[in-house]
């Protein structure tokens, strides 16, 4: 489970500036996929190799009424779901009555709260900080989010209780240099069991529980109860054919049965955790709503995580042909950029198409974990370069020499050559597609890294 850090504070103290800084990698991702919208509220963050989830709660003043009260309620819910709260104040304006009001709220929560004085650049930090001790939330942590001052220290402090656990689960991201002909040592990874962890995600009312029940109704299922908070999904072991699965049920079907209010609260954090914990994600989209911003933002989380993906357009029953055509053309137009995921059109309610989903899930899992030798990858690289030569850089031809595996799930291909820093993005895309077609990899993104050789 990734820890969750919530940013709280009145408007203009610098929450979104800090949010952007913490989730910076996501900007690179958004540039890679022009069809993606950025979620301004929830982000996957990474500071010095420590992954966590960050929530920008938006502004709360502490005295909201009417519709603002509703929004403040959302912020308070986010605070409930968080492991640590960063309560931000503005060192330039000094403490305000709104700050005091928010601090009253926070004091009532049993959360670890860090009082953060932002914008300490260009002010006398000591006296600015001193003023906020009156708020009575203990130590004041000075930062300048816009200039990345004090941010790493702050995060290390906020995540301190989780650091040991996190370092244990941090993935090996270091790119390994191998000489030509050498094989990537994946002994650590092959020890992983081949149980497929499948997360079923989607916005509220898209049909997650209906689909989960449908799947469970058809398969041999061993169900066990797991106590949990709103943040937790239900994990359901299941067998299908000769394969073992764990369904990660974000809709909480099992618990819902016993719940007095039938509606499980939709939680983005729960969804993020489920993605993180899965090998393959089924993202459900409601055919009747078309592709919404919420769908795109969930899709962004999946793409960023590198997990395998099957896209499921649900509620395909009883639709007129012109509506079906419209949905399909919208898919082409808005989701054409994800060319690796299979798309299924199903009716969870009637069961139509549900059985076929598993072919794509297994294909995606197998693609993501498939082993390919250095010799094979190098051969494919040579063919790709032969079919379409890398471009000239200031009169010199970029040379691609050899390729080897650098990791799996998602597959990482490390390519060695010279002048590779100058390789245009379009050629990089061409190579990824070439590898995808040659290796018949479907359902998972492929990552490519370049290594310069003299
Ligand atoms: P939010 O409403 O809390 O999300 O605040 P924003 O992140 O939108 O920031 C409000 C204003 O403060 C913007 O003009 C930012 O550029 C500015 N700001 C944020 N962080 C800093 C900082 O560290 N130093 C200075 N000088 N300005 C900052
Ligand atoms: P969840 O919030 O994502 O778990 O969504 P539910 O499974 O609770 O479904 C929300 C509503 O959509 C319910 O009224 C379902 O009966 C309905 N629904 C789910 N799947 C389908 C489907 O394939 N076709 C139609 N027509 N309705 C569906």
Automatic annotation (TrEMBL):
Residues 3-166, 196-369 form the EngA-type G domain. It comes from the Bacteria. Keywords: GTP-binding, Hydrolase, Nucleotide-binding, Repeat, Ribosome biogenesis. This is GTPase Der. Associates with the 50S ribosomal subunit. CDD domains: EngA1 (cd01894), EngA2 (cd01895). Belongs to the TRAFAC class TrmE-Era-EngA-EngB-Septin-like GTPase superfamily. EngA (Der) GTPase family. It comes from Thalassotalea fonticola. GTPase that plays an essential role in the late steps of ribosome biogenesis. GTP 2 binds at residues 202-209, 249-253, 314-317. GO terms for molecular function: hydrolase activity. InterPro entries: AAA+_ATPase (IPR003593), G_ENGA (IPR031166), GTP-bd (IPR006073), GTPase_Der (IPR016484), KH_dom-like (IPR032859), KH_dom-like_a/b (IPR015946), P-loop_NTPase (IPR027417), Small_GTP-bd (IPR005225). GTP 1 binds at residues 9-16, 56-60, 118-121. PROSITE patterns: G_ENGA. Pfam families: KH_dom-like, MMR_HSR1.
């Amino acid at each position: 489970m990734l820890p969750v850090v919530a940013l709280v504070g009145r408007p203009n103290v610098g929450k979104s500036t800090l949010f952007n800084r913490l989730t910076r990698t996501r900007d690179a991702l958004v540039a890679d996929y022009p069809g993606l919208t950025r979620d301004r509220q929830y982000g996957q963050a990474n500071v010095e190799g420590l992954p966590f989830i960050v929530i920008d709660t938006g502004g709360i003043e502490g005295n909201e009424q009417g519709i603002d009260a509703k929004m403040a309620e959302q912020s308070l819910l986010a605070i409930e779901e968080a492991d640590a709260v960063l309560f931000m104040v503005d060192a330039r304006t000094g403490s305000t009555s709104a700050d005091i009001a928010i601090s009253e709220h926070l004091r009532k929560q049993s959360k670890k709260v860090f009082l953060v004085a932002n914008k300490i650049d260009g002010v006398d930090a000591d006296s600015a900080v001193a003023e906020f001790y009156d708020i009575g939330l203990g130590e004041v942590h000075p930062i300048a989010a816009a200039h990345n001052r004090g941010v790493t220290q702050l995060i290390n402090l906020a995540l301190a209780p989780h650091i040991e656990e996190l370092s244990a689960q941090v993935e090996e991201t270091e790119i390994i240099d191998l000489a030509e002909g050498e094989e990537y040592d994946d002994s650590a990874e092959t020890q992983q069991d081949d149980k497929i962890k499948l997360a079923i995600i989607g916005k509220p009312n898209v049909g997650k529980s209906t689909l989960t029940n449908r799947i469970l109704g058809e398969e041999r299922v061993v169900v066990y109860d797991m106590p949990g908070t709103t943040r937790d999904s239900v994990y359901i072991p299941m067998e299908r054919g000769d394969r073992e699965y764990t369904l990660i049920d974000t809709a909480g079907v099992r618990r819902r049965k016993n719940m007095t209010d039938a509606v499980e609260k939709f939680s983005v954090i729960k969804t993020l955790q489920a993605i993180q914990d899965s090998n393959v994600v089924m993202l459900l989209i409601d055919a009747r709503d078309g592709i919404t911003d919420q769908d795109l933002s969930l899709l962004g989380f999946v793409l960023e995580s590198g997990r395998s993906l099957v896209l499921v357009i649900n509620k395909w029953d009883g639709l007129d042909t012109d509506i079906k055509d419209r949905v399909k053309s919208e898919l082409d137009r808005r989701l054409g950029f994800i060319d690796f995921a299979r798309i299924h059109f199903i009716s969870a309610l009637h069961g139509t198409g549900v059985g076929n989903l598993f072919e794509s899930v297994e294909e995606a899992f197998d693609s993501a974990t498939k082993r390919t030798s250095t010799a094979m990858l190098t051969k494919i690289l040579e063919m790709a370069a032969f079919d379409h030569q890398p471009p000239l850089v200031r009169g010199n031809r970029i040379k691609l020499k050899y390729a080897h595996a650098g990791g799996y799930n998602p597959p990482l291909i490390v390519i060695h050559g010279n002048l590779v820093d100058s390789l245009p993005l379009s050629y990089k895309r061409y190579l990824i597609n070439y590898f995808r077609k040659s290796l018949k990899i479907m359902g998972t993104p492929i990552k490519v890294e370049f290594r310069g050789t003299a």
